[in-house]
Amino acid sequence: MTPHVEPDPQAGAAVKAADRAHVFHSWSAQGLIDPLAVAGAEGSYFWDYDGNRYLDFTSGLVYTNIGYQHPRVVEAIQEQAGRLATFAPAFAVDVRSEAARLIAERTPGDLDKIFFTNGGAEAVENAVRMARLHTGRAKVLSAYRSYHGATSTAINLTGDPRRWPSDTGSAGVVHFWAPFPYRSPFYSSTPAEESERALQHLEDTIAFEGPQTVAAIVLETIPGTAGIMTPPPGYLAGVREICDRYGIVFVLDEVMAGFGRTGAWFAAEHYGVVPDLMTFAKGVNSGYVPLGGVAISAEIAATFDKRPYPGGLTYSGHPLACAAAVATIRVMEDEKVVEHAAHIGETVLGPGLRELAERHPSVGEVRGLGAFWALDLVRDRETREPLVPYNASGEAAAPMAAFGAACKKNGLWPFINMNRTHAVPACNITEAEAKEGLAALDAALTVADEHTV
Length: 453
Hints:
alpha/beta; five-stranded antiparallel beta sheet; seven-stranded mixed beta sheet; 13 helices
């Protein structure tokens, strides 16, 4: 694949000038960033105005699950815009109903009612609100090493440093340690031991907080930005049992892990658990038009049969977003994207990343499944000291910055967070494209190796 436009550096410069003059970017010190001007994208690739092409191993922000510019989804958005571009959420609209039906068909258990939002953070906000109203309780428990969004409740639920500037300490959130065998907070030596100790820690936390005060436990089924730590066997089932015992609502956040990312429609399928509420966004329509939502169990939905639900959004179930979701789900079904993600993970990405780990001393651990992988980069494999310190910036983060620059030099756009790089390409990436990405990672890891002891 080649760029569909001729290189035009002058146009790129104009785009960047307008961006610098008027766009306020998220999570950034505005004067210290230099965003790449993107000229186009298709499939697993995007390119700039200088004609440089990049294989996108980030899927945008882990949402272009079917790649960029899929013609069937683009056509569906265009058709919907010509037929009914928008309509208020209080009405029954065919494409909204169809999107909800298709999503409900794929969620586990009885999560058959869908509340639409504009994205993942709003989904988490509303899931917590539903749980609090359903139980009459206030507290919500969430894990360290997590990310749930940047809105008020969601950012307080988040367990990484992005929470700190907005943490009021009064949001009713209590954090606990979830399992992470590679960097165990419980000094465990096996996954089974990690699961057992993590569940005991969670139950102790609930006991000291007061079970009657806890409305919900919110967990990413597989934490995404925080490190793609697949939970050890038995952990999620154990959380489900604890929630049932104390009447706590179990919320699984599948904003990043859902819609084929892990080689299943939802990551919960890998663990045989059914939550009471499940949040989604991103891959539901490959990010083509903003959309998120909450899948709601029959019991919690019944709470609001006669009692109004006090929440809503102007663009809830927007027709263009729902048309993109309908088309995306049908593409995933027809083209067997979910099955392909599982296959590419088992036969190419997983084996290829593990082979890189054998040859590069900077790779401490490889973990993941489907099209959802992380490389934990270290200075020392024996001590597992991270390649850069936790929440490093500036010179302290230089080894990861050098690694990222090497990736880009080799035509790969990497996902980097702290001491990790994530391999999270489109779920329909071809075998040849995946191997191209692995080769670029191989070359870039030699730069990371220079910082090992």
